[in-house]
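Box S2. Input/output pair 1.
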Amino acid sequence: MLFNSLHFAIFLPIVFILYWFVAKGSLKLQNTLLLIASYFFYACWDWRFLFLLVFSTLLDYYTGIKMSEAKNQNNKKFWFWLSIFVNLGFLWIFKYYDFFANSFAYAISNFGFSVNTWTLNVLLPVGISFYTFHGLSYVIDIYNDRIKAEKNFVDYSVFVSFFPLLVAGPIERATHLLQQIKKERTFDYSKAVDGLKQILWGLFKKIVIADQCAEYVNEIFTNSGDYSGSTLLVGALFFAFQIYGDFSGYSDIAIGTARLFGIGLQKNFAFPYFSRDIAEFWRRWHISLSTWFRDYLYIPLGGSQGSMWLKIRNVFIIFLVSGFWHGANLTFIVWGLLHALYIMPSIILNTNRTNLDVVAKGKYFPSIKEILAMFFTFSLTVFAWIFFRAENLMHAWSIISKIFSKSLFLSISYSKDDFVKPLILLIIVFLMIEWYGREQEYAIAKLGLKLPKAVRWGLYYTIVIIIFLFNGKEQQFIYFQF
């Protein structure tokens, strides 16, 4: 069930009405309803994988209790590692086994040996990386005595499988989300309106920006050999906005939807393309994953403590794992390693926490220095995105070779160029709105608040009309494959 589908447009109001009008006043009934709705939402993808979600939930729920009840450290450690190994085992089997099996066969063949590999060739369960990380953070926090085990199975299950974030995040922690699930919730009209506005902006990002860019990106990357360097550069730029509009759009819809039910989710994007360096970019891009790796991997490894060699090692490990988290393909590894190289100067010079505030805060325009810094950072991310989008390393290299060739100076030669210029104009308008709202939780949070009510609502209806004009392609969200 896609957020940008008719099915979800029917599903959400039904759950909302039942939640606030039928289950009103009963926390137990509200949470039970959310759990049923979440399992139904997930089962709409493939009901068979619902059993995997339930099993993962039961595993962490049970091992969490057993850790809390452990009489000694050895017993506690046993249940902890059981949960870790089983969770990561399922993730490895479904997401990485085929990659390693095929890689092993290829490596052996280079030495003249032939080996028959057995591969699973199974569909990747949607959202497995996200709900697995929910469970891992929970058991790690219990093991480190940060939280107590949850005894209410329904409450814990809602934490793991809450439908707005189930398939593509944000990745939540029990210390934040589970505490909200256990508290009484009352309807707040202002929060609901704010949630609807964020859903609206998320849909705009997905349908008007990401899906329109996707049509050109897919054509250009699939047939990259037919196009000049200039056209391939445009394709790379469009992919940068496709993945941002797609993933941050999903996060906006998820956060806005959760707010309709009186639940606040972690902010996942903070206008990353306005970053002045790579360190700032990673504080603003996929925030829930970045902070997860920081808290559960980077800091336990030693973080920024110790020698410069250890700092560099820890940074490379984080970005290597981050790339690998996205999928079993060397292109993701290279993408992660590129970002590790990008961030190295700021780590070595200790300038990685220079740009902590919003760019040009309180100002209409950035300085020339800030413009150049943002342009340079954006250029680096676009270059890395080529590897992220390419089918393999050879494909990425062929695209890069053409971009850095004489054909970069040829005119754009796209067969369907009738909409390229309007799309570029649309992206420019989108960036202007994002710039205007860069100090808010999302771009249109305070759009038109100082204008007369009729004008303000006119702006919202204009966005709705534009979404309907561009709707129809109903493409899946990119991060569903992760």
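Box S3. Input/output pair 2.
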Amino acid sequence: MDTTVDLDSFASLVERPDDAARRAAEERWAQLDKPRGGLGQLEELGSWLASVQGGTEVRALSAAKVLLFAGDHGIAELGVSRLAAAGGTAERVHAVLDGSATVARLARRYGAGLRVVDLSVDAGAEEFGPEVSEHRIRRGSGRIDLENALTEQEAARAFAVGMAIADEEADLGTDLVLLGDLGVGSTTVAAVLVGALCGTDAAAVCGRGSGIDDRVWMVKCATIRDALRRARPVLGDQLALLAATGGADFAAITGFLLQAAVRKLPVVLDGVVSAACALMAQRISFRAPEWWRAAQLTGEPALAKAYDRLTLNPLHDQQVTMGEGVGAVLALPLLQAASDALAEQAFVPALPTAPRPPAKLPSAAELLGRL
């Protein structure tokens, strides 16, 4: 099936957040009974939420969604990660789906939904079920130091899938997306894209990823260098760049970020993968970053460069390096606090319909009477 994506249309379709709503939020902060600036950065964060929501009243966040894009990368076979190249991504997807992964536990804790989208995991199509793999583009991807990750047609299809998912989430009423990724070798791919888009050499963007040692770091750095040579000739064509040195998950995240901005759906970026895709999206629409917030720094040099180019400041610095959307989920309580403090009607969690009565405990007198 032929897929054509009009990237130029995003320049006009993406609007800026509502400045009038931001000003109204700032006025409301001034009216609250507190010292001026007494809530610190929560005030700026609340004003941003007001601007992306639009309207006359701020709505407390009540339908946040953790969205994880999953894909394997051929570059992982070079051993650039401490995680297993064969089966490592599939295991992580299963852990999220069965609820044992940290991101799944935190999502439950903070009341966020959770969705995994398999774009190119190197596993059987039936491994995760249709809800996860219905949008799969291919199984695995090419080794980007030697060959393209995928064809340009596959890149266009993946980009369109990301757009469709943004529409689905907006139509479902999701009011905030916490964006993450699942994929062994993904930090290497992200470093290549950031290096290409920022015009830096391999050493300036090569990080420790999954916790690699010096020897593996040198292998990773050489791999990024070779992939950068392949990226530079197609730097002016975003889809060609995603096909040459990205992957189906990267193309889908880029499409998602742009369409989410079109649909006025705010997004929190987790780490270097989402940041690399955000840089790609910024190339296509310069207004799009106004709809995003950066969750954290992870120590990855490529992430710091990307956020500097995007002019995004991280919401926290808990030194979380595991990816999988964990850093983005940890930012959710801050955003909830900002929206609750500013909203006309704060969000009240629903109570269980039939709470169990507390167990009758013996009184001190009863206990003493037994002695």
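Caption for Box S3: The two ends are 81 Å apart (CA to CA). The mean pLDDT is 89.
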